[in-house]
């Protein structure tokens, strides 16, 4: 309050005069008896300190004609009042007037233009109207030290060459400086109120010059600043350092730290030179705190100033300080909002789930120690006191993790870069081969270190340690490097994340031979993708995804689906490339695979299709977050909770749709509106969903149509993909968008039975994928009925069209793998059993063969065998023959004796009934079935039924007169005996059935196929030798032709001849299959 200003600076110009209307300006140019002197009208405060408030010189005020001097009030225009308020800087009053006029519907252009112009509030006085006392000089508000236009970026930035253009860092710095300024203002306010000298003491100092007035805090800080400035200018650097240390509560870098609104005086040298030559007379000076007009200032006026006036001035200063604090608080909030807007818009739940894959933990005692990184010498001592009791007795190789807190704290606070580098080198080489817990401890410490020291030091000090060990001979050390890159990603500069760190991880992924290291690399790459913001790195990320998916290790591929693909998809979504590039690129690669000339690479197909499957959750999240109802989701109050089975179980938290959209409550609200939109309002204007319906689904269905239906792997992969797609997008979407497109392609109807154009697609993989991938998504009664009807229609249509049954078989195989659909499939087959068409009944009989292996024996006894026995007595011989493979499969898989006897009797009726003696097709089917199930059937059934009947069939074939039929039966018998030769056969059966049957078959082959006859002769010879050796005293037992050939020259001959023959692969495989 004791700052003295010269009279020459008191004539300040009112900045609001420019906002007056033309009428006001004209009236001010006209002379008026009531007009004030020019200097008084321009000054912000009047010299009439104790007088009554002067009347406003408004256009509507005139003197009374009576001459008594009392003014009469006429109507004053609102615009004139507003102009006077702005001219005298009664801003708050003007704002209240503006608000009331707005509420009344009478907006004033002058006030609207003034308050809508932010320039009126940036560099002008912040003094509230309460401080406009006509005796105090205005306190000009200092410009904010934390606004962008006044900030020296290169001065405040940690790294001026690179980080000065980082807007986020700048805003964070501004926010921090604003907080510091608020604290300084509050400190000055306290000092101003506590250190004010009473007026009586002031009188004593004025009246007795020999009594020196005590130095005020503001004066002390100003003198300290000038002294330090003088020392620095004159090269007294050591003295300056010592002086700064003794005044550690003051920042000598900024004059603003001295005090609020305090102008900087000249330096000490200038003050010394001017102290004797420019003394101002008392009448040429004015005390700002007193605020008197210099024209009325007398030598004794200060001593006569009333105490009430001083208290008024103090209150005005306090109000000014509080007003500036409120402005800085508003500025701080604005900066915080700008920082929030500049950050990436991933949901906090997604970031939290992504960072959960970093192997860091603070649950243990050591974890809490490391997390509490020290920030002062005193806390270092405290940490040493806590850690040394653990360090001293345990400095062994297995206990060196106890040293980690001490090493990191020292490295964090040590002033020498060389020493810090040495300490961090010790940290990374502390343990020769760190295990999981030890690596977790080191990573937790590194993260705490990075959080404390900032991005610049992390780049300069921690990353070089990782780079040095990227090719270390121990995989545990390389594993530590890979995990460190991911854990440190949030604390690295963005340029380093997308260049050096990405290159390090890419090199390790391509070159490292250890699965665990590559797995950690993929997880860290996923975390990097969650923080990268360079669009040019998208193509590199896509190639890294394909490289990770093609890895031969299941661990690496699993990590790719759990971490990398969800993180990469989230970044791709922000770039707008999910639907425009990422998914179409994978579809293009699948199409090229299916069109390849060298056969289908099922491994690559699985790789691309699994990647597409992992992209379904982010695709659905994009659809929800860009829907017409997205803006209304926040307004929903009570929403039905999400069912547990609403979505397929995600492979990781990052594939959980609730994580992607920001939480289960938000997802529940979006789902409620999503279903309502689909059911009642349609998809008009919903571009993201229309892309799925009009582009993705048709392209997928076209791809499915090109798949070879015999490839069970491809059918299974696409079925699982469509199942997850339909389950994720919901039942309404499946019923209204997916099923109609498939039904349009399949076109099942009786009218198209004979039309070749309408049935081609029924033989493709479209049928099993639609049946198992779409129709099985939901398991309500109506859904099951729809699936049953579809399978019945397909079976009927294919049978009547004489089309291949591969698509129907693929459907039964895929559905039969799940026991929940066994009853449903048996229902479909019973429909075929009782169908009027023999073609459909034949198809049903053949389908039982596929179903028997997976169905439990109870269902086989209750549902399968009765149906087969019904078909075995069918009027059509073709239907009866079609049941033989299913009967054979039952003999191969069932263990119930009673059930086996029923099947045995039915097969015996086929073989022994005279009506079947000339049924060449039936004999062929029985021989083929015996060769297929004989090696794996129950031994008693094989010895007592299969081998005797094969002997009989071989004998009958010797008497066959039709050459072609004899050759067909002989070929089937050869394959059957080849398969049964691997079995251990008793000596009795060998003499009575197996050897005689071989001789009969050899007799046929002598005339029909000499190359087969050579092999059969070898087999007969070995059997005879074996029987003879047994008869000469060796213990009785069973024998195997294949076993007897071991070690013999005939083995080579036998196998070479077998390789030359065109027998089926299944039969040759069974030759060497051993019965257990």
Automatic annotation (TrEMBL):
Residues 7-18 have a biased composition (Polar residues). GO terms for biological process: intracellular cholesterol transport. Keywords: Coiled coil, Endosome, Golgi apparatus, Lipid transport, Repeat, Transport. PROSITE patterns: HEAT_REPEAT, LISH. Gene3D superfamilies: Leucine-rich Repeat Variant. Residues 1-73 are annotated as: Disordered. HEAT repeats lie at residues 864-902. InterPro entries: ARM-like, ARM-type_fold, HEAT_type_2, LisH, RELCH. GO terms for cellular component: recycling endosome; trans-Golgi network. Residues 168-195, 318-345 form a coiled coil. It is found in: Golgi apparatus, trans-Golgi network; Recycling endosome. It comes from the Eukaryota. PANTHER family: RAB11-BINDING PROTEIN RELCH. This is LisH domain and HEAT repeat-containing protein KIAA1468. It comes from Electrophorus electricus (Electric eel).
């Amino acid at each position: 309050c004791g700052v003295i200003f010269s009279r020459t600076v008191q004539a300040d110009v009112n900045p609001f005069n420019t906002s007056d209307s033309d009428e006001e300006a004209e009236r001010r140019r006209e002379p008026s008896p009531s007009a004030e002197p020019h200097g008084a009208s321009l000054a912000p405060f009047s010299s009439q300190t104790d007088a009554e408030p002067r009347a406003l010189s408004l256009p509507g005020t005139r003197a009374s004609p009576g001459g008594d001097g009392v003014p009469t009030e006429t109507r004053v225009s609102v615009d004139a009042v507003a102009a006077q308020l702005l001219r005298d800087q009664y801003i708050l009053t003007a704002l209240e007037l503006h608000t009331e006029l707005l509420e009344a519907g009478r907006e004033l252009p002058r006030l609207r233009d003034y308050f809508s112009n932010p320039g009126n509030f940036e560099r002008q006085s912040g003094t509230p109207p309460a401080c406009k006392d006509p005796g105090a000089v205005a306190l000009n508000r200092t410009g904010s030290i934390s606004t962008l236009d006044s900030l020296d970026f290169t001065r405040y930035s940690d790294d001026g060459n690179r980080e000065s253009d980082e807007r986020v860092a700048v805003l964070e710095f501004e926010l921090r400086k604003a907080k510091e300024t608020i604290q300084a203002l509050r400190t000055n306010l306290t000092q101003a109120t506590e250190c004010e000298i009473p007026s009586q003491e002031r009188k004593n100092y004025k009246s007795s010059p020999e009594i020196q007035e005590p130095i005020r805090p503001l004066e002390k800080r100003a003198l300290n600043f000038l002294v330090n400035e003088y020392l620095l200018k004159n090269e007294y650097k050591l003295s300056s350092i010592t002086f700064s240390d003794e005044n550690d509560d003051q920042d000598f870098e900024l004059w603003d730290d001295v005090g609020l609104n305090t102008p900087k005086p000249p330096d000490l040298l200038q003050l010394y030179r001017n102290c004797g030559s420019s003394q101002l007379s008392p009448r040429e000076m004015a005390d700002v705190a007193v605020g008197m007009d210099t024209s009325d200032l007398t030598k004794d006026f200060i001593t006569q100033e009333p105490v009430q006036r001083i208290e008024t001035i103090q209150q005005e200063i306090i109000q000014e300080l509080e007003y500036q604090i409120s402005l800085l608080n508003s500025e701080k909030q604005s900066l915080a909002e700008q920082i929030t807007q500049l950050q990436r818009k991933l949901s906090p739940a997604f970031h939290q789930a992504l960072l959960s894959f970093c192997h860091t933990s603070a649950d243990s005692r050591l974890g809490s120690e490391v997390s509490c990184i020290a920030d002062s010498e005193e806390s270092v001592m405290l940490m040493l006191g806590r850690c040394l009791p653990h360090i001293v007795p345990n400095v062994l190789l297995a206990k060196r993790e106890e040293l980690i807190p001490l090493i990191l704290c020292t490295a964090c606070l040590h002033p020498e870069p060389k020493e810090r580098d040495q300490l961090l080198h010790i940290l990374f080489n502390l343990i020769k081969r760190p295990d999981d817990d030890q690596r977790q401890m080191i990573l937790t410490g590194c993260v705490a270190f990075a959080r404390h020291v900032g991005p610049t030091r992390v780049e300069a000090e921690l990353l070089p340690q990782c780079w040095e060990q990227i090719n270390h001979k121990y995989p545990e050390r390389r594993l530590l490097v890979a995990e460190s890159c991911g854990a440190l990603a949030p604390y690295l500069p963005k340029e380093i994340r997308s260049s050096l760190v990405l290159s390090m991880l890419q090199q390790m992924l391509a070159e490292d031979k250890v699965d665990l290291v590559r797995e950690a690399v993929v997880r860290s790459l996923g975390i990097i993708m969650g923080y990268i913001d360079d669009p040019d790195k998208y193509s590199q990320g896509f190639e890294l995804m394909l490289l990770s998916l093609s890895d031969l290790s299941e661990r690496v591929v699993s990590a790719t689906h759990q971490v990398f693909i969800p993180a990469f998809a989230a970044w791709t979504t922000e770039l707008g490339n999910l639907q425009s590039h990422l998914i179409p690129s994978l579809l293009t690669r699948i199409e090229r695979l299916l069109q390849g000339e060298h056969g289908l690479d099922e491994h690559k197909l699985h790789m691309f299709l699994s990647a597409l499957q992992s992209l379904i959750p982010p695709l659905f999240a994009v659809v929800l977050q860009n829907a017409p109802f997205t803006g209304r989701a926040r307004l929903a109050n009570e929403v039905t909770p999400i069912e547990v089975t609403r979505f397929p179980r995600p492979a990781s938290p990052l594939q959980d749709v609730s994580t992607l959209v920001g939480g289960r409550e938000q997802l529940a609200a979006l789902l409620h509106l999503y279903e309502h939109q689909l059911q009642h309002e349609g998809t008009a204007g919903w571009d993201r969903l229309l892309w799925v319906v009009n582009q993705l689904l048709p392209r997928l269905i076209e791809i499915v149509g090109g798949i070879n239906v015999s490839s069970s792997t491809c059918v299974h992969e696409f079925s699982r993909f469509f199942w997850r797609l339909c389950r994720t997008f919901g039942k309404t979407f499946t019923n209204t968008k997916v099923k109609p497109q498939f039904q349009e392609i399949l076109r099942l109807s009786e009218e198209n039975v004979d039309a070749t154009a309408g049935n081609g697609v029924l033989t493709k993989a479209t049928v099993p994928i639609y049946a198992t991938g779409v129709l099985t998504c939901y398991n309500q009664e109506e859904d099951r009925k729809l699936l049953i009807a579809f399978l019945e229609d397909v079976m009927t249509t294919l049978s009547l069209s004489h089309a291949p049954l591969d698509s129907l078989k693929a459907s039964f195989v895929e559905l039969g793998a799940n026991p929940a659909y066994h009853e449903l499939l048996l229902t479909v087959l019973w429909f075929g059993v009782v169908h009027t068409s023999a073609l459909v009944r034949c198809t049903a009989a053949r389908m039982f063969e596929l179903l028997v292996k997976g169905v439990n024996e109870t269902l086989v006894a209750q549902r399968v065998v009765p149906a087969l026995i019904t078909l075995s007595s069918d009027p059509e011989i073709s239907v009866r023959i079609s049941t033989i493979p299913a009967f054979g499969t039952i003999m191969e898989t069932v263990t119930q004796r009673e059930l086996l006897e029923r099947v045995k009797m039915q097969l015996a009726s086929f073989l022994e009934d005279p009506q079947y003696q000339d049924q060449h097709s039936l004999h062929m089917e029985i021989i083929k079935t015996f060769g297929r199930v004989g090696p794996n059937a129950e031994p008693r059934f094989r010895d007592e039924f299969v081998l005797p009947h094969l002997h009989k069939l071989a004998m009958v074939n010797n008497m066959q007169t039709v050459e072609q039929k004899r050759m067909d039966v002989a070929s089937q018998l050869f394959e059957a005996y080849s398969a049964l030769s691997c079995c251990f056969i008793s000596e009795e059966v060998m003499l009575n059935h197996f050897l005689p049957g071989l001789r009969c078959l050899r007799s046929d082959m002598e005339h029909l196929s000499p190359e087969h006859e050579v092999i059969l002769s070898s087999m007969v010879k070995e059997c005879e030798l074996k029987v003879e050796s047994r008869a000469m005293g060796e213990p009785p037992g069973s024998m195997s032709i294949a076993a007897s050939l071991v070690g013999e020259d005939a083995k080579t001959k036998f196998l070479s001849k077998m390789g030359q023959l065109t027998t089926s692969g299944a039969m040759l495989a069974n030759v060497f299959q051993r019965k257990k």
